[in-house]
Write a structure and sequence with these properties.
Number of domains: 1
Order of helices and strands: HHEEEEEEEEEE
Radius of gyration: 22 Å
CATH architecture: Sandwich
Length: 151
């Protein structure tokens, strides 16, 4: 009797550990880790933010699309806030290393309900490739980067 109970419990435990769902892919490597870092939902707007507010230079992007962002030939609107002085220069680096300028912007924003450090600009980037995109930003002598996952 005891042997039957042990066998029955073992079968139930094995069945509980078996799933019909395929395993989720595990992100590996520095690029994937960087893409997973510093992604949050802005409580004031409900949109996804990428980047980091940090001492020294801060760069945050407010993404006007669901996250992860779907790949598209249409521009994805991203508002940027960066600390420092001077105009914003920003580019996107695709997962295969190609550098591209925004399809529009950066356009300075004079008013906004997004509360974050720095001055604000609007941009549109065409993100056609799946993977982790890196945005490189510069204002005078300040530089920063942010990462965005595109699916």
């Amino acid at each position: 009797m005891r042997r039957t109970v042990v066998l029955g419990v073992s079968v139930l435990l094995l069945a509980a550990c078996t799933s019909t769902r395929p395993p989720r892919p595990v992100a590996t490597g520095a690029k994937m880790d960087a893409c997973a870092d510093h992604v949050a939902t802005d409580p004031g707007t409900g949109f996804t933010t990428v980047g980091q507010a940090a001492a020294g230079t801060s760069l945050l992007g407010l993404v006007f699309a669901r996250y992860p962002v779907p790949a598209s030939t249409e521009p994805t609107k991203i508002a940027w806030r960066m600390t420092g002085a001077g105009p914003l220069l920003i580019s996107a680096v695709s997962p295969d290393g190609r550098v591209s300028a925004p399809s529009w912007g950066p356009e300075p924003h004079t008013g906004s309900n997004w509360v974050a450090p720095g001055d604000e600009w609007g941009t549109g980037f065409v993100l056609t490739q799946h993977g982790c995109w890196t945005f490189r930003a510069q204002r005078s002598s300040s530089t920063a980067s942010a990462h965005l996952q595109v699916e």
